[in-house]
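=== Structure Prediction Worksheet ===
Name of assembly: unnamed complex
Input type: mixed (protein and possibly other molecules)
Chain count: two
Listed entries:
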Amino acid sequence: MEPERFQEVFKRLQAEVRKVIVGHDEVIRQVLIAFFAGGHVLLEGVPGLGKTLLVKSLSQALGISFKRIQFTPDLMPSDIVGTEVLTEADGHREFQFKKGPIFAHVVLADEINRATPKTQSAVLEAMEEKQVTVFGESHRLASPFIVLATQNPIELEGTYPLPEAQLDRFFFKLMVAPPSPEELREILKRTTGTESDDTGKVLPNDGGKLINQMQQVLRQVLIAPPIEDYVVRIVHGTQPNLNNGNGSISPTKQYLRFGSSPRGAQAVILGAKGNALADGRIHVSYEDVARVVYPALRHRIILNFQAEAENVSTDQILAEVMKQVPRS
Amino acid sequence: MSALADPQDRRSPEQRVGHLVGQLRNHALWDSLLIFAPPLLVSIDLWVNLYRAVWIAPLTFVLLSIGSVGAGLLAVVVRYRPLIPSLGSAARLVDERTGAQDRFLTLTTIETTLWPVSFVARLRSEAAAFLARVDFRREFPYHIKRSFYGSLLISLIAAVLFHLSMALIGSNLLPTPPYEKVRELAEKMAERPPLSALAYGLRTLAMKLEQPNVSEQEKQALIRDSVEQIEKQRETETQKENRQLLGEASSALQRLEQGPGQQKGSEQGRGGVQSNLSQGEEGKEKPSQASGGGDSKDPRSAQQSNDMHQGNTARNNLKEQGKEKNQQSQGDGKSNQPDPSKSGENTGTKQTGKTQGGSQKKLGRSRSEEIPQSTPPAERFYKPGEQGKDGVKGARYITVQLPEDVAADAKGEGTPSTPSKDPKGYPKAPVSNVPLPAHVPDAPSEKQQLPLEYRGIIR
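=== Predicted Assembly ===
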C-alpha cells in the first residue's frame, strides 16, 4: 500500500466522522491513529460530550462491525466474552459457544469503570491477547479489533477505577473536552433541527483487509535513531527512582510514584508514525513525537499522594519532562 | 531548478550533508584558532621582550616560545574536538534552514538496509527537492565569533600592561647595563664619519665591559683611556653636534669609571633638584665646557658636569669656607666616600671644625662632611637682628643655603636667587624664605648656611 493511499483514507474517515461530531478534531485524529496503530483508546470526559457518538460514527465510516457494551456493576464476564449454551438439534444436545459483544471489530466499552474488576479484567485480557478463552477453548477475536472505552471523571461513587496495569493496555488516553461556544452552536443546529447528516461508509466491503494493510504500512514509516533516542529519554525521564547516575527530573521525582512502562515508548513511536503518515510523510519528526507524548503517556505515569494533594496533573508532569529533555 | 544543474547539487543529500560537516568543521577550527591566536602572539611577544631585555637566556627564550606554541596548539585541539559537528547535528541544521521536518536527519542516520527501499528512495528525493532551495555557503557562512573579540581585547590589554610594566621596571629597578649605554654611544658615533674610530674603540670597550672575566682594574683602565681619547677628540672637534655627542660619551664613561656605588650616590644626590637644572645653556658657560659636560643636553651629563665643577669649586674655597660659621665640608659621593674620621685624622683638621678637602677624589665628586658636635643645628642660625656674614641687619629675607651654594657664592659664580643663569645648573631655589620685618619693604636679603643635619630633610 502506498503512503498516499493511507493519507487519503485517513482524511476521508476524518471527514465522515466530522459530519456527525462537531469539534474534537484532535480526538478524532488520535482515535484513528490508535486504530491504525492497532491500539485501544480510553476516552475520558463528562457525560454528553459525544464520546459514544464518536465511536459509533467511526465504526459506521469504517464499515466494520460495531458493538456497544454498557458497563454496570452487575455485568458479568460472560456477558462480554460469551458463554457455552446447551442447544438441541436433530435430537442431539450439545454445548455451543455463543459469542459475546467482544467479537466485533469495534467495541465500545461505555463507562468501563462501572463494572467490577472481574469483568474489567475479562475485557482487558481480550484487548491484550486478542482472543478469549471459554471453558478451556480459545476463540480469536475479529481483526482488526479495537476497544474504545469511556469513563466518567465525575460520579466516582460505586465505580471501580481501572488498575494501573490495565490502564497500561490502552494505547492512548484521550481527554474529551467540552465544546466551545461555536461548536455548541453547531451541535444545536445539527441536533435540534430537521436536517440530519449520517456518516457515510468510507471503506469498501472488504474494509478489514484494507485496514490491515494500513496498519502494516504504518509500521514501515522511517524513524531516525536520534528521534528514537529522544523517545527513550522522555520515557526514561518519567521514572521517579533512577539509580543509573543520570538522576531523575525534579518534578518526576517529586510527584510520581511510577513512570511509564516500555509500552509507553512503543505507543509514542507508533503514534508518531501514524501522525506522520496522516500528514503525508513517510518519516517521523520530532514534532510527531511531541504531538503524541501526552495521549500515549498520561495514563501510564502514576501520581503520588503529594501530586494528588497539590492537584498536579500528569499532563503538567509530562510538559515539564518534555521541557527538560533535550532533542539532541 | 537551475541549481540542480550544478554538479554539486547532483550529489545525494547525504553527500551534501557530509560536505556541510566538513565546512562546519573548518569553521570550528577557525574559531578555535582565532580564540587562542591573540594570547599566543602576546605570550611570544612577552618572551621576545624579556629576551631582549636580557631577563631570560636564549635557551629559555626558545623553550618558552616552543612551550607557548605547544600549549596554544593543545588548547586549540581541546577546544576544537567538542566543536566538531556530527552528521546528525549538521543534518538537523539543514532541516532547520530548509524546513524539511527532519528529513535530512532521518536520511543521514537510518540504516537504509533495514527499511523499505521505496520509502528510503522517496525520502531521498524529497530531501533533494529541499536541497534545491538552499545554498550551504550562503546559509552557513563563516562569522567571527564574539569570543575572538573578547580574546583579542584581553590579549591587547595584557600586552599593553606588560609593556607598561616592563617600561616601569626597566626605568626604576633595572637600569640599562653600562656596556649597553657604551654600545649605544658607539652606534651613534658610528653614524658620524669623523667619530668612527672612536666608535670602534667604544664597541671594543663595551665588549670588554660585558665580559665577566675581565678584571675591574682592566675595565677602569680601558675606560680611562677611552675618556682621554674622547676628550682629545672633543678638543679638536669643530662641529657642535659631534662635540655634544663626545661630551655625552665622556660623561657616561666617567660615571662608569666611578663605579656603580658612586653612580648611585650621585643619582641620589641629584634627587629632587634635577628639575632645576639648566639645560638650555650649553656652550655658554666655560666652566661647564671645561668639565666636559656643558654641551650635553642630557640632564645626567649636565648634572655630572655640575657636580664635577662644584667639587672643584669647593676644593678651591676650603679656607674661605672654614672661616664661616657653621661651615662644613661637602661631598656628594657617599658609598665610596672615605670615612670622615679617617679623613680628619689624615688632614689634622677634624678638631678645628674646619673643612678639609684632602680626601676628595676625582673631579671633586668626593667631599667629606663633618657635622659639628658642639652646638645643635638650630643654634647655628643667626639670631634675629644679629649681624650676619654680609653685615646685614634687619634683613627682609634670609636665604638659607646648602654648603655647596655657600662655596659657590663665595667664589662669585652665581647666586641662588638667579637659578636660570647658574652655570652649574645646581638647585637655586632658596630652601627657606622667612619674612622678617614686614614694615620695611626695601630691606635687603641675607644668606645663611643650612646646617648639614637638615640636608636629608630637604632632599
